[in-house]
Amino acid sequence: MKILVVVKQVPDSTTNIKIRPDGEDIERDGVKMVLDPFDEFAIEQAVQLKEKRSDVESVTVLIVGPQKAAEALRTTLAVGADDAIHLLDEAFDTLDELQTAALIAAVVRDGGYDLVLRGKQEIDLDSGQLGPALAEALDWPHVGAVTRLEVAADGKSLAASRRIEGAEERVEVALPALITCEKGLCEMRYPSLPNLMKAKKKPVKTLAAADVPGFAEVIGRVGGARMHRFAPPPERPPGKILEGETAETVKELVRLLREEAKAI
Amino acid sequence: MTNDILVFVEQRDDRVHPAGLQCLTPARELAGKTGGQVVACLIGEGIDQATAALEQAGPDRILIVRDPALKDYSALRYRTALAAAVEHCDPKVLLLPASFMGRDLAPRVAMRTGAALATDVIELTLTDDGALDVVRPLYNGKATCHVTFPADRLAIASVRPNTFAAPTGGSAAQKEEIPYAPAPGDDRITVKEVAKTGGDIKDVTEADIIVSGGRALKSEENFKIIYDLARVLDAAVGASRAACDAGYQPHSRQVGLTGKTVTPKLYIACGISGAIQHLAGMRGSKTIVAINTDPEAPMFKVADYGIVDDLFKVVPALTEEVRKLEL
Ligand SMILES: Cc1cc2nc3c(=O)[nH]c(=O)nc-3n(C[C@H](O)[C@H](O)[C@H](O)COP(=O)(O)OP(=O)(O)OC[C@H]3O[C@@H](n4cnc5c(N)ncnc54)[C@H](O)[C@@H]3O)c2cc1C
Fold it and tell me: To the nearest whole percent, how much of chain A has pLDDT over 90?
């Protein structure tokens, strides 16, 4: 069995997001970039499968991003991936998520993968489009936001659990399949310094647009939504702090929620 | 391409998801500009009650894809069914709720139909040259941006729950059945079990009101006061990651960056400091109440109403006060 983990490098969740003066993007200089926390679950799950099963041949990691994204690849290699693919080209920077999914599908379609893992959503764009879109481009089944995963002994199917509104859903899926990983599935082990050093020696294949046959056609078939006019979130008007004895503040709160906010 | 606006109205167990009906409001506005119709699509088995509920929200036409194989949600079967509805109606815009199902389904249908897509949108308009233009939050609510669609292909957008109010007062709509023609391999996903969680308390993603507790609760037993307040408000119970990690609440109730994103009408944060990762999951709420002993807690910066006081005094008193209202 061959496992592919598709990851993304994103601004750290504690970063202060500033908008570029022209509003076309956020300010990217000096922003601390990390492996997406949801992708941490995906790489850890892949490595655990490899450790537990004798039939897992390899764990490959794929990233689309600038030179700097190689740092995120190195984290995943230190955690236990065997090799990596870095899709690196300025032409990739302007692709939307559907086009990126189409690009990845074109690159991995003939790679012989049985299982693709990915985080539930990206903490920068907050959309979670890439996983399901990639599954569709490959015409594979997918299960989104998985919290428990078990690959059958014969390696032909998997059982997954996921939480939906007010219920837990248990599904069975034939392989090859794509899974997006939710908090609770596992926690990524700490990439130790010796392993980070060893990761430097693991093979990373870099591919540009010219290496993808029919690139323009592949990305021309879908997507094209353009993000622009970035802005800070709408300001919330300053709140009211209620003062006094508990009995009074609570009474006042209920009145405000009823009459002013019309929330209850 | 017609000028129609298609809306996927999610249902489970013959109950429509409120967020699905809410999509009909922006759909009606867009149709007013394109001169097209509002067409709603229901997918499932049976679904007579869902159809009746949908008619109340006043779409012009309803497309129904009904089949025993569509009883439970399957990403494969539903993408085939919805893509068939798209082909049948050839709309300019397709709207879905940004619920679990909508967010799971939209990228597949977009890829399958060669459309463009935006997720979790909060504003929708048409530009002068007839292209869809939407606004969506990103970077965990720390920014927003416009997304402009190409005018010459289907535009798909999932709409953030509780952003719009569902329309009411509709009457009978024209109904059309579309057969579900399975695509090869649609049976590769089998739903084995759908087990309800949370007992009599709603899930945070389907409630209008959420009462949420943090580390300050100190134990699972102490969460009882949070549940008591939630019950009188018909609310869901949420929690911070610190509270979930400590085992006071299951992770299914965690709100935030690595938990659930919620946009209820009212969010009551009890003993939650308001870390950026928690705000990521709830800052889109309409009204926010903070109850915290520390006047400097960041939660007060996003709160509409704050009480600087001990939650163990405030929450039970609040429960009593709400009980008097007889909601
Ligand atoms: C990658 C990443 C992802 C994360 N994802 C999430 C997430 O999804 N959700 C999430 O919540 N966090 C998340 N966190 C954690 C987050 O940073 C905070 O640690 C967490 O939200 C703190 O929870 P808390 O507010 O309950 O606890 P604390 O920060 O300890 O706050 C407790 C608050 O209770 C107040 N208090 C104490 N006693 C009382 C009392 N008697 N009455 C009233 N108030 C009282 C205190 O003044 C304090 O403000 C994430 C962190 C990282 C790094």
Answer: 94
Is the model's pLDDT at B196 over the cut of 80? yes
Residue carrying structure tokens 């890829």: B111
Helix (H, G, I), strand (E, B) or coil at B166: coil
Q: Do A253 and B191 touch (CB under 8 A)?
A: no
Cα separation, B60 vs B31, in Å, equals: 11
Domains of chain B: 5-188 (3.40.50.620), 209-326 (3.40.50.1220)
Q: Which helix (H) or strand (E) holds B300?
A: helix B299-302
Residues with CB under 6 A from ligand 1: A 13, 37; B 214-216, 240-243, 254, 256-259, 271-273, 275, 277-278, 281, 291-294, 297, 310-312
d(CA A34, CA A9): 5
- Please say whether the beta carbons of A228 and B145 come within 8 A: yes
> How many other β-carbons are positioned within 10 Å of the β-carbon of residue A115?
24
Tell me the residue type at A127. S
Sign of CA dihedral B248, B253, B256, B262: negative
Question: Could you give the domains of chain A?
Answer: 2-222 (3.40.50.620), 234-264 (no CATH)
The alpha-carbon gap from A51 to the nearest alpha carbon of chain B, in Å, equals 26
Q: Are B131 and A214 in contact (CB under 8 A)?
A: no
Contacts with B, A 118-137, CB within 8 Å: 123-133, 135-137
Q: What is the per-residue pLDDT for A237?
A: 86
Predicted structure pTM score: 0.92
